[in-house]
Specification:
The protein is mainly alpha-helical and 127 residues long. The chain is built from six helices and two strands. It has one domain (24-124). A hairpin with a 2-residue loop joins strand 1 and strand 2. It starts with a helix and ends with a strand. The structure holds adenosine-5'-diphosphate and magnesium ion (MG).
């Protein structure tokens, strides 16, 4: 959320929408994101689902638990941390930093995928 409004407005957005649960929205989102990243695109995944299953695809459970545990804190880093001041009428939208997947916090399921994050982009690995 650190980009200027001008930069943000040029980003292409893809939404996968279906009112029914369990039809593959999250799985499709993850796979489209992976393929785009593999093609060298910079991808931002926004997980607004309280179940956090998209987030669980890409970061370790331990890290996810920690993020959720500190969501209410002043330095919380979730979408809730960002909108909380507005919902509680205590302030403005807080800026939160996206989690950089190059920081070695990929979930085991992602590590088993045929792609590896190398030099700021995803490449097909030798797994
Ligand atoms: N193309 C697919 N083929 C088989 N199983 C799938 C496919 N897409 C998703 N699934 C499985 O279906 C279940 C629900 O998928 P999910 O992406 O969580 O759905 P949603 O986000 O719409 O609730 C998961 O267990 C997932 O692994
Ligand atoms: Mg889902």
């Amino acid at each position: 959320m650190t980009n200027s409004p001008t930069t943000r407005s040029t980003a292409k957005r893809i939404s996968i929408i279906n009112h029914k649960g369990g039809v593959g929205k999250t799985t499709l989102t993850f796979n489209i994101a992976t393929q785009l990243a593999f093609m060298g695109k910079r991808v931002l995944l926004v997980d607004a689902d309280p179940q956090c299953s998209l987030t669980a695809y890409v970061i370790d459970g331990e890290v996810l638990d920690d993020l959720l545990d500190h969501s209410d804190d002043k330095d919380g880093a979730t979408l809730w941390s960002a909108v909380k001041p507005i919902i509680e009428a205590t302030g403005n939208l807080r800026e939160i930093e996206p989690i950089d997947l190059s920081e070695g916090r990929l979930a085991p399921s992602f590590q088993r995928s045929p792609y590896v994050y190398v030099g700021g982009t995803f490449r097909r690995g030798a797994k």
